[in-house]
Model the fold of this input.
Amino acid sequence: MNRVWHKPAVLLMWLALPTAAWIYWRVWDQLPARMAVHFDANWQPNGYTSREGAAQLGLEILVVMLVLFTVTTLIVDALKPVAFWPALLVSYAVLGFCWYGNYSIVDFNLKAQQVHSGFQGPISKSTSQFLVANCRLPLLAGPVTRTTEN
Done:
């Protein structure tokens, strides 16, 4: 079997990194300062970070996965060439999932910002986020006990 295309096919998966970085870069000024990056089973956000943290975490996960799959596919190519294409296919599928995760986080935060921007009026985004966060504080404080004096 001709193995000329094996290394270029492995290197091609590294295009996921600059394209994911471009996703963040092209809309950087439109992203909210506080971004949802983790979601529960109902796709409701339950984890937040700064936009710098979101970009850093997303790209770092992608780099770790790229290094892992590059080394793995090159080892598979050297030790068992017949398993190279299935290993490469799995690598591309997982990396595509990670890339789509970055895309989805950016897309969700852009759409969430557009949905709420019509209701904000003169209040800035950071002020409205502060108000929403503080409205939930009494719920996190625990049960309120009332005492009655007779």
